[in-house]
Design brief:
about 400 residues; signal; 3 domains; three-stranded antiparallel β-sheet; protein transport
Length: about 400
Amino acid sequence: MPQYLTTALLALSLAGPATYGAARQPAMLVAEESAPALYQQARSAARQGNPQAALRLLKRAVATGYYSPETLQEEGDFAGLTSQRAWPRLLAQARTRQQRYEAQFNQPLLTLIRQIGYQDQQYRRVAEEADRTYGPDSPQLRAAMQQQGKLDNRLIRQVDSLITVHGYPGKSLVGEYQQSVVFLVIQHNPDEKYLPLLTAAADKGELRWSSLALLVDRLRVARGEKQLYGSQLGPAVNGHYQLQPIEDEPNVNTRRAKIGLEPLEQYLKHWSIPYQVPTASHNPNPPAMYVTPRPATTEEKSPIELIGGYEALYAQLQYPAAARQQHLAGRVTLELRIDKQGIPQDVMVVKSLGGGCDEEALRVMRAARFLNHAGEDHEIRINLPFPYEKEKGK
């Protein structure tokens, strides 16, 4: 999915909790009817314009599952329920259940996790609203994500410190409601180094596998591979999102179901993508629905060209004293937009190194200039090495 739209709403309400208590239900109902099933039925009833049925189903889902008031309020399908008299009572029910459940956990740690969760979503919610109001290419959306990018850099460092002390702060430490918070921060700062930690946490039930699937897809796309679960979208083209290519696409819903994700066609409705799962012999979706794979030959006629070349750019990097003292080495990853004049805009750090390296990378990149052969804005991602050594400067 677009990075700015990886919200708590999507990671929690779409994935659903991993385990639930037994639902209180009349004998005529199917015994396996779980809180996630009730929640999805409530969404369906709300979409069909049946608020009374939706509220009844939601009340039972909240009583047996782990749905916070914020999750209910942020669910777009429930917008029509907010005017119902029973809505405030439902939110109060969800709040009371959450407070009673979370009373058993370390309260200072929970408070910190909640703060991290709020900051991880602070400007993403603004971006989401800008997407709805002004469109996916709007300057309002870009401005919100530029602010979020600054927060993300601080949050990933805070998360690294938390992991050093506690390991992954999952279900046993912070409970069902907050188990995905640290994952979301990592998801917004994707790095292969976290995958073993998160896989082990998912195997132990500390993190939902349905959440981890988002990171698996994102890392595969970053490596130029096809995704497995269909969670990742490309940038908007002419106001419409495209789907990143999927490996073994006819079986995508089988893989999604195994880890508790809803069918892909339902998931993609959130971005107005009218998707149909292909068969082994036929794909009914138009080619324009998918991001065009990059050719294997990487440096063929790029639409933009860095003036002076990358060696000269790297040579301008000064290795900060703080990074030297901490023996920091690695790369700072930047995302930016090259405008029609070849000037970098909206430069932000998406993978931090710390020790002053982030600030130095931003300084050098903002001063760079490009030839823009395409004549239109172009988004790129660049890795800057610290410390830079000429013989290793690629």
